Amino acid sequence: MPGKPSLGLRLAFYLGMLFLHFPIVIIVLYALTTEDRTYQFPPPGLTLRWFGEAFQRQDMWAALWLSLQVAAMATGIALVLGTMVAAAMYRFQFLGKDFITVLLILPIALPGILTGIALLTTFKRLALEPSFWTIVIGHATFCIVTVYNNVVARFRRTGFSQIEASMDLGADWWTTWRMVVLPSIATALLAGGMLSFALSFDEVIVTTFTAADQKTLPIWFLNELFRPRERPITNVVAVFVMLITFLPIVLAQWLTRDTDDLHGGGKTG
Length: 269
Description:
Helix content is 75%, strand content 0%. It is mainly alpha-helical.
């Protein structure tokens, strides 16, 4: 049995959690403040007024709807392409496989500004004007990596003998995929998809280079930061966005942990 953590270790843990989450508490606090221009601490009073005003902003709802559409499309593309690439990388051995693996993870490893510049340059060379679809393509480049990492890890824990046995028993490729492969990777797909959705929904830098005059919700945030009297409304929307992105991330983590336990990942001698 693992020993009880020392007082110093527990103190370090609590300090680390405070450092990470204190800014979130501040955002929630100033979403309730009665002051609309400054960040007085403590706030002079608390009110729910800004929630009503935020929900009446049509520009906010339009930006939110655009972000949801982009995230959904980018996640759908990532689920299809990421799964196909993961299956190919798991199944086949070929010259330069390690190099291809590096290329696959490069979009999420590079700084976002480099990815944004590369995408903008490519779109200009192809005479493509920034639009909804250029945003989707830009987001899909790093969402594919998230799906690929989850699915290829699950493939490596799934014995290929199960697939061979299904084919030997007379099942065609579609039946084998539907009855054997898909159930094995379903939670990995769900976890990768939800993480991809959250990443796309929050993306700012790549969107800046691919969106032109369209405003996703993160871009809307940037514009509102230059309007001092709108600070409480911005904080209210930030709380709303945190809830949207928090739930899929937690659910994805829970699904991944649950699957690891089923495979014996949580067992100790």
